[in-house]
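Sanity check

After download, print the first record. It should look like this:
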Amino acid sequence: MADPHLSQADIRHVAKLARLALSEQELTKLGSQLESILHYIGKLAEVDTSGVEPMAHALPVHNVFRDDVPSDPLPLEKTLQNAPATDGPFFRVPKVIGGDEDSAG
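Expected structure tokens:
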């Protein structure tokens, strides 16, 4: 791959696609950076990857699930022991809908 050279129009087009409003100075600076990135990608394209399997992760990944086995529930006292506020056998939480005048205090 030949050395990529981007015109100012190409750089403006990429900036527009990325929804970036750039000054002329930023276009020049980022244009040279974009060219160096494309040059590096060109070097990567030269590598023979014909025998390499595509992968999503560098390491093997697998989900570890435990069996969903029904069991006895926690006793009510243990369930509510760390709740900041309770109302009998229920968790007490601030009202979500409404303004401050509707909040339970």
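If your output differs, re-run the checksum step. Summary of this record's structure: The domain at 8-45 is CATH 1.10.20 (Histone, subunit A).
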